Amino acid sequence: MDYIYVFSTLATGLILGSFMSVLVFRLDVRSGIISGRSECPRCLTRLKWYDLVPLLSFIYLGAKCRYCKNKISAVYPAMELATAGVFVTYSFLNGYSSLNSFYELAIIFILLALLFSDYIFYILPDKLIIAGFLISLAYFLLFKFEIVGSSLITGLVLSATFAILNIVSGGRWMGLGDAKLAFFIGFVLSYPSGVWAILISIWIGAIWGIVLVLLKRANLKTHLPFGSFMAAVAVLLIIFQKHEIWIPLIPRL
Ligand SMILES: [Zn+2]
User: Fold this and answer.
1) What is the pLDDT of residues 130-145, one digit of tens each?
2) Domain range summary for the chain, segments of one domain joined by +
3) Closest Cα to residue 184, out of 166, 147, 149, 158?
4) 115: CA distance to ligand 1 center in Å?
5) How far, in Å, CA of 33 to CA of 22, rounded?
6) How far is the CA of 125 from the centre of ligand 1 (A)?
7) pTM score, whole prediction
8) What is the Å distance from ligand 1's center to 68 Cα?
9) What angle do CA 201, 204, 208 make, to 5 degrees?
């Protein structure tokens, strides 16, 4: 592992993280394909390339817009750093020279975009889920045909469970977006990893909720971004599933 390799992976991750923030915010605000150029959300000044250098512009500008001096949300550098960190960790553990690693990084990118979208807006955009599903379906049809059946069944059973919970609770426990995301994760991770991903997310979500209630930061009606937990656990499973350091509880694929 040499420095150039680490640096180039880090830079790629930061750039992709920057692209992700554009994707997440535009998908929410306009629900359309990314169009136009980047602008300050407050003063609407079109930003120059040197205002948009991932992470560095944020630090250099002291978290303020160059033109109107309004604060820039820390969400942008957080997304860039999180994406870069995940990409470096993935490539350190799995390399990124094979077709399989390109595929897995594409899925990780979409899962991270869903994670942030749900965390910030409580929205899991259909377009992201459909794009991820189609990428995964194409990859499986070409290279892992034998798991297409079990992947489809895993996704359908998990999403049906969520859909029932949604109906029973009148949409209070789970949103329909969660059901769609559960299908996507079940399909990508297949059986048994997909089931584990959802179970672990439920445990983490429950612990998170209890801690928030104990800290009086939430009550039983507070909406938890459950999709974010599912996406985060799925990303971790994809990164670590080929490695001994993963909890022995979970059978590897
Ligand atoms: Zn501005």
Assistant:
1) 999 999 999 999 999 9
2) 1-84, 98-253
3) 158
4) 26
5) 11
6) 27
7) 0.88
8) 4
9) 135
